[in-house]
Design brief:
Number of helices: 3
Distance between the termini: 71 Å
Order of helices and strands: HHEEH
Helix content: over 70%
Strand order of the largest sheet: 1-2
Structural class: mainly alpha
Length: 77
Amino acid sequence: MFGGFGLTELLVILAIVLLIFGPKRLKNIGSDLGNAIKGFRTAVTDDEKTKTTEDPKVIDGELNEAQKTESKQDTHV
């Protein structure tokens, strides 16, 4: 099923985790994990949006080749 674990093994692991943490704390752990994943996805999506709105001519603080030649021509005028 999951990486060589069968249904019986997963149920035993779940029972042990439930005994160690308890149902209330296990709910909080799941909620915190869900919020962390949601925050990560939001950060990645926001990062992708800012990359697309940035000036495509400037890449990592450097000008591309067309802009370099334009700036050289401007200095000779």
